[in-house]
Amino acid sequence: MKLGVIPGDGIGIDVTAEALRVLDAVLPGVEKIDYDLGAARYLRTGEILPDSVLHEVRGHDAILLGAIGDPSVPPGVLERDLLLRLRFELDHYVNLRPAKLYPGVATPLGGAPEIDFVVYREGTEGPYTGNGGVLRRATPNEVATEVSVNTAFGVERVVRAAFRKAQSREKKRLTLVHKTNVLKFAGGLWQRTVDAVGAEFPEVTVDYNHVDAVMIHLVTHPERYDVIVTDNLFGDIVTDLAAAVCGGIGLAASANLNPDRQSPSMFEPVHGSAPDIAGQDKADPTAAVLSVALMLDHLGEAEAAAKIESVVRDDLAKRDPENPGGTREIGERLAAAAAA
Amino acid sequence: MKLGVIPGDGIGIDVTAEALRVLDAVLPGVEKIDYDLGAARYLRTGEILPDSVLHEVRGHDAILLGAIGDPSVPPGVLERDLLLRLRFELDHYVNLRPAKLYPGVATPLGGAPEIDFVVYREGTEGPYTGNGGVLRRATPNEVATEVSVNTAFGVERVVRAAFRKAQSREKKRLTLVHKTNVLKFAGGLWQRTVDAVGAEFPEVTVDYNHVDAVMIHLVTHPERYDVIVTDNLFGDIVTDLAAAVCGGIGLAASANLNPDRQSPSMFEPVHGSAPDIAGQDKADPTAAVLSVALMLDHLGEAEAAAKIESVVRDDLAKRDPENPGGTREIGERLAAAAAA
Ligand SMILES: CC(C)[C@H](C(=O)O)[C@@H](O)C(=O)O
Ligand SMILES: CC(C)[C@H](C(=O)O)[C@@H](O)C(=O)O
Questions:
Q1: Looking at the complex, does the CB of residue A211 fall below 8 Å from at least one CB of chain B?
Q2: CATH code assigned at B132
Q3: Which coenzyme or cofactor does it need (chains A, B) (predicted)?
Q4: What CA–CA distance (Å, rounded) separates A238 from A126?
Q5: Residue A160, marked binder
Q6: Closest partner CB to A181 (pick from B79, B133, B144)
Q7: Consecutive H or E run containing B263
Q8: B271 and B240, same structural domain?
Q9: pLDDT 10s digits, A206-257
Q10: Minimal Cα–Cα distance from B35 to chain A, Å?
């Protein structure tokens, strides 16, 4: 197994080291190729994602990414030309983000609601395509547009993947999240696709929620969700709220999948590079570690993946919320437990 | 003062009756013209918003709206051709939504965080313009687009209104909410506009948050916000989460303002028509009542507005959360207190 590693910027570097430590503990001998991509390289050389690197990365089995972004680079440049470019070039059409409240983890909602759902966020279209433009820039008559592009091809494949997942789960519930009452063109395509694909999955109960209603449900009745399928932008928004109610962004893992395996999938914590705490042994590496579990699962190493998840679950149940330990300490604790 | 009243559908009818009861108690003698618009009229006559009605309504001082939408009408039809059409035709470019956690109100977050901010949601552009289209509908090659249209004219006027508001408040903080790292065309216009207008308001502290980060902050540190300015769709999403953390959609008021007074402004609770509980004396009319307070404030009746807010505040502090009373009982209680 050949793994491309892109620690990236800020705490991305800190948490990736620990994620690899746990990987080595649970599955020794994975070959890792490190890529120096992110703010430092950009500032040094002007390069963001050279074609040669992209070409090389295509040959690997998977990519582990830390986080991208630094205040010394204009906002959006690295996000778009590195992170989003990887997702688009490698056709990561399923951005999978589990939302699970582990026992013992404090949620801002208080109590211990049963939260255990997965979001299938479309990863290669919608408002993320970069379509749009600016007319009469910086004049009183400026017009700026953003075009959300949605294709039957793109919507159908993520919807089908979400239905397959729903079919495999106990509750077998799928909720389409959109804003069909306003965005009637894209909304129509999404709704018709869910209706059509749903007919092939008669055991799955299908539901629809407007994205604004999801805001309310996620803080009042998060247990109602099982599998959510949604577009790229709504998925971005909904998964951060989901992470927040599941104890915070320090625990939220994600997978950028090409389920057809025509290119390597990419695994990354949902959190950003948090430059304010970078290199200070403060970041929680748990989200990165759980992203390794998603990776192993995708690569057919179900046992190793389950081992990591159970080790994390045990650790979270025992953690002192006031004093969970530093980045390295948590990583070493998880690695030791995973090796045992 | 001449008030156009559109109770609309479902619980819109229930709560509007109580909102008017409180209005009469605090400011007797307002002339009211009732409009039969919504699902019932549409199903009876096929009409949604006849031009003659729109023309008449333009002549009033303000509009009070209950809620729009019914399962017997295809989703989106009434929302777009009645509610959104009113907002667009009457040029309601500020959709103002206060988020305040009143003493004694239970928040799903637990505890009693200090939440007191206002959202200035743009109301006449963005992804709500209906721009976009469908190509090769219902074929495997379908392409559906949605175009977010943002103009310097449209962005500047809502940003300026938000800065004026921030300037008048104690904390004098303004946060732009967008997704500039992905939506670079629209994001650029919004960010440059905030920078330029901000230069005229040196006392206001300006901040920026990505919409996904707001999801986290609103459930962990909602007290950080004072005035939020954002686009039509992000505003829709953020204000429902804000309502949820402030005790629920039953308390969230909103104003669709034309601050230049070239057309009547429109006041409505944030909640929908909730057909499942319509006509059952179950809906909380408080959001509609608070919308009347926003209306009176806009119309220069600051004292009457303050009276309603203080009566609501007192009532909320004393309410039994398990048994707040029915729609009518709450309305009568508030009206009696307002008349005293
Ligand atoms: C950094 C940004 C481009 C990215 C996104 O919007 O997808 C991030 O928020 C995420 O959710 O992975
Ligand atoms: C009903 C719908 C069109 C409307 C909107 O999206 O603006 C509603 O959600 C709101 O927030 O007032």
A1: yes
A2: 3.40.718.10
A3: Mn(2+); Mg(2+)
A4: 15
A5: no
A6: B79
A7: none
A8: no
A9: 999 999 999 999 999 999 999 999 999 999 999 999 999 999 999 999 999 9
A10: 23
Q: Domain boundary residue among B246, B272, B298?
A: B246
A209 sits in which H/E element:
strand A205-210
Residues B70 and B125 in one domain: no
- Picking from B196, B226, B246, the residue at the C-terminal end of a domain is B246
**Which residues contact ligand 2 via a Cβ below 6 A?**
A 181-182, 212; B 79, 83-84, 236, 270
A52 Cβ contact list (under 8 Å, min separation 6): none
| B51: its two tokens | 């031009």
Domain-embedded: residue A82? yes
* Secondary structure element (H or E) that encloses residue A126, with its range: none
Instruction: Answer for the pair A312, A30: CB distance below 8 angstroms, yes or no.
Output: no
Q: Are residues B111 and B130 in the same domain?
A: yes
Distance in Å, alpha carbon of B130 to nearest chain A alpha carbon: 7
Do residue B239 and residue B143 come from a single domain? yes
> What is the percentage of chain A residues whose pLDDT exceeds 90?
98
| Residue B78 host element (H or E) | helix B77-78
> Does residue B273 share a domain with residue B235?
no
Task: Give the 3-state secondary structure of residue A210.
Answer: strand
Domain encompassing residue A275: 1-95+253-340
**What percentage of chain B carries pLDDT values higher than 90?**
98
Contacts across the A-B interface (CB distance below 8 Å): 203
Quick check: B107 and B113 in contact, CB under 8 A?
yes
Chain B residues inside the 8 Å CB shell of A140:
152-153, 156
Over the stretch A119-163, which tens digit does the pLDDT of each residue have?
999 999 999 999 999 999 999 999 999 999 999 999 999 999 999
B3 and B88 fall within a common domain: yes
B212 known member of a binding site = yes
Q: Is residue B35 part of a domain?
A: yes
- The count of domains in chain B is 2
Q: How many A from CA of B225 to the centre of ligand 2?
A: 22
DSSP letters along B23-72, please? HHHHSTT-EEEE---SHHHHHHHS-SS-HHHHHHHHTSSEEEEEE---TT
Give the H or E element holding residue A138: none
Q: Are A186 and B76 in contact (CB under 8 A)?
A: no
Rounded to the nearest whole angstrom, what is the distance from the C-alpha of residue B92 to the centroid of ligand 2?
A: 13
Q: Are residues B118 and B62 in the same domain?
A: no
How high is the mean pLDDT of chain A?
Answer: 97
In this structure, the answer to whether residues B27 and B111 fall within a common structural domain is no
Residue B276 within any structural domain of the chain: yes
Asked if the structure places residue B333 within a domain, the reply is: yes
A154 is in an annotated binding site: no
Question: Does B182 contact ligand 1 (Cβ within 6 A)?
Answer: yes
A135/B contact by beta carbon, under 8 A:
no
What does each of the 340 residues of chain B score in pLDDT, given as a tens digit? 999 999 999 999 999 999 999 999 999 999 999 999 999 999 999 999 999 999 999 999 999 999 999 999 998 999 999 999 999 999 999 999 999 999 999 999 988 899 999 999 999 999 999 999 999 999 999 999 999 999 999 999 999 999 999 999 999 999 999 999 999 999 999 999 999 999 999 999 999 999 999 999 999 999 999 999 999 999 999 999 999 999 999 999 999 999 999 999 999 999 999 999 999 999 999 999 999 999 999 999 999 999 999 999 999 999 998 899 999 999 999 999 999 8
Nearest-CA residue of chain A relative to B221?
Answer: A108
pTM for the whole thing?
Answer: 0.97
